[in-house]
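Final report, results section. Input specification for complex C-07:
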Amino acid sequence: MSLFGTSTGFGAGGFGAATTDTHNPMKDVEVTSPPDDSISCLAFSPPAMPGNFLIGGSWANDVRCWEVQDNGQTVPKAQQMHTGPVLDVCWSEDGSKVFTASCDKTAKMWDLNSNQAIQIAQHDAPIRTVHWIKAPNYNCIMTGSWDKTLKFWDTRSPNPMMSLQLPERCYCADVVYPMAVVASAERGLIVYQLENQPSEFRRIDSPLKHQHRCIAIFKDKQNKPAGFALGSIEGRVAIHYINPPNPAKDNFTFKCHRSNGTNTTTPQDIYAVNAISFHPVHGTLATVGSDGRFSFWDKDARTKLKTSEQLDQPITACSFNNNGNIFAYASSYDWSKVTFCLVPHVMIVHIQITFVVKFPSNVALGTCAPANSSQIVWV
Amino acid sequence: MGRKKKKQMKPWCWYCNRDFDDEKILIQHQKAKHFKCHICHKKLYTGPGLAIHCMQVHKETIDGVPNAIPGRVDIELEIYGMEGIPEKDMQERRRTLEQKQESQKKKQNQDDSDEDDDDDDAPGPSFVQQQMPVAQPQASYVPPMAQPSIPPGARAPGMPPGAYSGMPPMMPGHGVPPMMHGMPPGMHGMPPGMMHGMGGMMPPMMQGMPGMPPGKHCPRRYSSSPPLLQSLCTRWGGLALTGDTAPASGAVPHNVPSTSSDPPKATFPAYTQSSASSSNPPSNTVAKPPATVTSKPATLTTMSATSKLIHPDEDISLEERRAQLPRYQRNVPRQGQVHMSAPPVAAVGGMMPPQQGMPPQQPGMRHPMHGQYGGPPQGMPGYMQGGMPPYGQGPPMGYQGGPPMGMRPPVMSPAGRY
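Structure output:
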């Protein structure tokens, strides 16, 4: 039974049977009842909540919630709708609310216990990012929009508690208290500090030369935000520290999500980095790209840990769960290759989950059988 | 300076017109880019050296220096670093630099949009353009440093918005490319508040900063060329957040190093090989400076000899592009059912092709509003754009019909294209 209504597209079966199907070459667990259109964002529940709940927003205007069980099963739980494609989702720190941002220029707060969603924010253009800020003296939602503003909302009031002007449309943002960072169109990059109240901290000249696409803050060993990883459409990620002892050495960029690495005869295809996620425990990062692959990297050792096989569709979103054991990624069309004849009439969207295993000496990643060793059911 | 002037300008590569901080780096660049054998990848020291190597070892002749701009492919010319560069080329370079400095200063006070277009249209392969503007900032950095005010409406949005006007303490750390952007006046109100709130994030910064006169940071005019940034941006990190970048000139040298594929720039080991050999992509697929804030987005340079950017040409995000499509413009209050997907997909199939190449849209353009959507907006309880609908109103069953935001601008909000 599907809570999500009739689900066209896949799900009709046949997936498990194929051996090297490119829908799921990594043989990861596929989430049941995926949305009917591309997935724009994924978010796992915070540590305060027992269990793992995955929220995914999609271009089908809906936001879905699944429970991911320890044996790998995914159970659809609930759904909410916007009137426009959902672009970003986030959880409150206690796991009771989910905030969703949409092209319908609103952001909503979804109370999971009551399964009610109310509007809490309004912009003049689609809201691209939404983040929950929990500060000692205030709580609020931060929304970044294509109307070039960054607004902060107390969910109880219809008016923003603060509105900051951005240089350009907000393309991506991340928040790890007390730091927030926003990357905008025209390669804008601004860091905010959130103590007492949000204020602009610094504008940074982009370390990348192409359009910004995704950003994620990382923490240092003291668990304080230390910098961020910024991805662009040109298959490149910049690791940037806010106050490094030696910026020239500490900040760097690396190339990723490109084809034909060593083949110099054919032009190299360069793909956009669609999302970046940091592992909550190890501090390694995952990048997913339009080339249909995901990769794990160690920014301190500056090495690549693993790259997946190539999926048949771009990977549009990813998320680690709160303890880093599960990595979810969504494979769906991202319109990076739209041409006259390539428009897919049927989009296969699926969210896969890979279980992350830590070996004694260093981190290795891959799928694993659950501890109780019952079979993982490929759905 | 000494009698024998050290070529006076920053080291630059005769073959490709790129600027470098240091002659050593220049030489490394030449060895890797111009004097490297394409067969065995051995790095030679000079052009003739490469020619001889290919002949002797591989029995192959080469007719030109690899990766050189047209006119500079002469393999017979023995150039090593800055030595061996013909005098007339040196003078030409000096002249060009000076011209650029002049036009830089002039441009600073002019309207940007036209300027940018001019730059873009300048003839020649993309990297000729690259190098010229690259040279600019070094000269122009010093003068602008003295300017306390930011020319309003200054630069093309192509530049990373370095809104430094409010951030004197930060400035030194950003000495190099704090790009001035057309900052909304509102920003100026920020600094006072901002200074206090710095708290935990700032302390290391603050220490070196106190002496910075507020007006001193660099309303830098950035050239419209991205290649400038490619060198700046890779090196800007080199500006330590210390207090001793006070002298403006101290900040200057950093800004014109080689491109991101430079060895000093750490890249992941996995890519160090390819970064040397296929390092052209970054420089060649650089985005053209987007046009100013107009309805027509700029386009990217997505193709080059060695690489191809898999991205639509317009320099807008994939989400924006997608949101403009007719199928996402509708504002149907979906009642939790999802079989909407079938019709839209089919509809899209028909509608898509004509829409494809469409640059983002003029409001009137796309309205294949299907009849069913006519209704909802009117039904919405008094939502005016920009106003906040009362909360908890009509709660939620499944969703709350938000303000009919999907409605096209002509109907609702004047701003925005959505």
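Chain B touches chain A through 132 residues (CB under 8 Å). Confidence is low (pLDDT under 50) at residues 111-267, 269-295, 332-418 of chain B. This concludes the modelling results for the funded period.
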